[in-house]
Specification:
Layout lengths: L11 H21 L1 H10 L4 H15 L15 E8 L4 E14 L5 E5 L6 E6 L2 E6 L5 E4 L2 E17 L2 E12 L5 H4 L8 E3 L11 E5 H7 L4 E5 L10
Parallel strand pairs: 2-7
Antiparallel strand pairs: 1-2, 3-10, 4-5, 6-7, 7-8, 8-11, 9-10
Length: 237
């Protein structure tokens, strides 16, 4: 009944369609919740990163979504094994959504861990070639069957005035599944990455920054920006 997600390694247009549909779902959830999100940022005294994580979970919990009765593991704020139904097929999906919060000056990137990435990270760092495999599987085996991994990041961009946080925009990025490696990061010169905020000399774990402009140049819809009310949000195809 369900599509074997392994077949998507050679059916890239269908894979792109699944990820685009998932991106629309997350964008709609955050758009519907944006006024509440802004109010939470303004009033909540917690750290901005903690606020962001809570907002993402609450926004996605409020939107209707299918559920597959199995548990997912990993370093993500929101994890949902679910059914994806299309007119022509159905597939099991492991949907991961993670939150980032940063002052407005850092709005154009998101710092990721390898445990949040299913691609190989090909880039030049400090003049040297880097090829680091992501640790997130392209497909996750569960007791209910194989689930296609889909990873989306939500970036809350804010400023602070008189010790009050003001949410400016919410950026959403759909990171390609590793099956799409050749389309998005085939080599060190054709990349979507920037050097991450880690210090190897201090023994810090490798991290990398997803460059929103580079990803958007590849595929426009993979980056969406939600402004705060009353400004309208228009899906950028």
């Amino acid at each position: 009944m369900f599509l074997d997600p392994e077949t998507l390694s050679t059916d890239l247009e269908r894979l792109e369609g699944i990820e685009k549909g998932s991106m629309r779902l997350v964008a709609q959830a955050l758009y519907d919740f944006r006024e509440t999100a802004a109010e939470i940022f303004r009033r909540e005294p917690d750290l901005a990163q903690d606020i962001a994580e809570d907002i993402t979970r609450e926004a996605l919990d409020r939107i209707e979504m299918s559920r597959l009765d199995t548990r997912l593991y990993g370093k993500m704020d929101y994890k949902r094994a679910r059914y994806v139904f299309n007119r022509d097929y159905a597939v099991l999906q492991a949907l991961f959504v993670d939150s980032k919060a940063e002052k407005i000056a850092g709005q154009n990137t998101a710092t990721l861990q390898t445990s949040q990435i299913s691609m190989i990270i090909n880039q030049i760092r400090r003049g040297l070639e880097v090829n680091i495999p992501g640790k997130l599987p392209k497909i996750i085996e569960t007791d209910k069957g194989k689930c296609l991994t889909t990873t989306i990041f939500v970036k809350y961009n804010y400023d602070t005035n008189n010790n009050e946080n003001r949410l400016i925009t919410i950026k959403i990025a759909a990171l390609p599944n590793g099956f799409l490696q050749e389309r998005y990061n085939p080599n060190i010169n054709d990349t979507i990455w920037k050097a991450g905020r880690d210090a190897p000399t201090l023994g810090e774990e490798f991290r990398v920054r997803l460059a929103f402009d580079k990803l958007k140049t590849k595929t426009n819809w993979r980056i969406q920006t939600i402004p705060m009310s009353p400004h309208p949000f228009v899906w950028d195809d």
